[in-house]
Specification:
- By secondary structure, the protein is an alpha/beta fold.
- About 45% of the residues lie in helices and about 15% in strands.
- The chain is built from six helices and four strands, in the order ααβαβααβαβ.
- It has a four-stranded parallel beta sheet with strand order 3-2-1-4, sandwiched between helices.
- Helix 3 links the parallel strand 1 and strand 2.
């Protein structure tokens, strides 16, 4: 496996325990953590520009990626077009993305993540792009 692919896959964190461990390390280094979320089903220029701007708000960018079931509920039966693992890998390829986590839609999940992670962060709200 290429070194690049390993680095990309290391950014994708399915485990809450691993997420907390990494965030603890970042907090210990006084990193400013920015959190953003979305479906990112068809990654496009608008997403990349938005996320690049979000990354500028801090030193670490965490992306909350909607799961496949969540995307289906939000966007309809024919979605997602790309599986959550594929979407996560594409997001992890962006240099300014430091971590990708999966979550179900709804503010309670975002707030639960923030509570579990015990982080102070800037919450960047993703708006719907017209596709």
């Amino acid at each position: 496996m290429s070194d690049y692919l390993q680095k990309m896959q290391a950014k994708i964190q399915p485990s809450t325990a691993e997420i907390s461990k990494i965030l603890d390390e970042w907090r210990g280094n006084n990193e400013k953590i920015v959190f953003s979320n979305g479906c990112f089903d068809i990654l496009h220029q608008g997403h990349v520009v938005y996320l690049a701007k979000a990354a500028c708000l801090g030193s670490k960018l965490v992306i909350g990626l909607n799961t496949d079931n969540s995307v289906k509920r939000l966007k309809g039966e024919n979605r997602p077009i790309n599986h959550q693992n594929e979407r996560a890998l594409l997001l992890s390829a962006l240099e300014f993305v430091d971590m990708v986590i999966f979550f179900e839609e709804g503010n309670e999940y975002i707030l639960e993540f923030i509570e579990i992670a015990c982080i102070e962060c800037h919450l960047c709200v993703v708006f719907d792009f017209i596709e």
